[in-house]
Amino acid sequence: MTGVPIALDLAVVARIADRIAVMYAGGIVEEGPARQVLSGPKHPYTRGLIRSIPDHLKHGALAAMPGVGDRPSGCAFAPRCRLGVAACTTANPEPVALDDRGHRVRCIRTSDVGPLQSVEEGSRTAPGRTRSEGIILDIRNLRAEHRSCSEVVVAAEDVSLQIRRGECVALVGESGSGKTTIARTIAGLHPIGGGNVVLGERQLPADVRRRTREDRRRIQIVFQNPADALNPRQTIGSAIGRPARLLRGLGKKEPADEVARLLDLVRLPQHTAQRQPGQLSGGEKQRVGFVRLVDLTTSSPSACRWRASAAP
């Protein structure tokens, strides 16, 4: 039996695929044996994808690619490519065979694509991040249940954790172990069956509708399925602008400028604001779902930009 998995998760692909074909703008830009493509990519887009994946064993900033921009008549990746030259915009390159094992790349500058461990010009060292001892979120003996007329199913019980300023905490477990229910309960979207959620020094009401605007602004959730998180009848501009109005009190004209700024932070073209969710890819919708719920209270876009810097 032959299988053709289609995925955005390179870690999964690396474990199950014998060969990898990398697509960009509707065409294959690199193809070859999985191990060879992942360890020695020869197309700038493939290299950029791999370098944008966080690695907990290595310290350093993720290498972000420039924004999408308008696609030229030649190579579709040219506006985002640091190696691009004038010839890249005149004609779409033909596939180049790099060896006899089927490693092929659509690029005229394959010899200039450096190894993955090299430092690109203009890249920066990740700023040092220190953890403060101040506890931002304190979850105490949390219990979450799913109730019906006939039974009560306990999704999570006696869950306690603390999150300090500067920390990123990952909640890991098998499918059905209660991760999503815990997250929804903390956000006030699922009833609390027991325990407390303390934000700073304030114990939060269980129901998000009883929380203050500041509470709702400080704890937000990015849903796993972006297709269900966005209203299919709303434009992307409306989906991003409405939280800015409700949570920040912006006027009627201010959200338009804020939508443009936020789209730029996640490397989406400005005209995306006029589109509807059904006109976007899954990855684009996930970026929209992220940026409409990111902490918008910062006076500088740098915090948002750091979070969005790895958007492929």
UniProtKB/TrEMBL annotation:
Positions of the AAA+ ATPase domain: 165-269
Keyword S-adenosyl-L-methionine: no
PANTHER family tied to this protein: D,D-DIPEPTIDE TRANSPORT ATP-BINDING PROTEIN DDPF-RELATED (PTHR43776:SF7), TRANSPORT ATP-BINDING PROTEIN (PTHR43776)
Name listed for the protein in its UniProt record: AAA+ ATPase domain-containing protein
Gene3D superfamilies tied to this protein: P-loop containing nucleotide triphosphate hydrolases
Assigned protein family: Belongs to the ABC transporter superfamily.
Stored InterPro entries: AAA+_ATPase (IPR003593), ABC_transp_ATP-bind (IPR050319), ABC_transporter-like_ATP-bd (IPR003439), Oligopep_ABC_C (IPR013563), P-loop_NTPase (IPR027417)
Assigned keywords, A-Z: ATP-binding, Nucleotide-binding, Transport
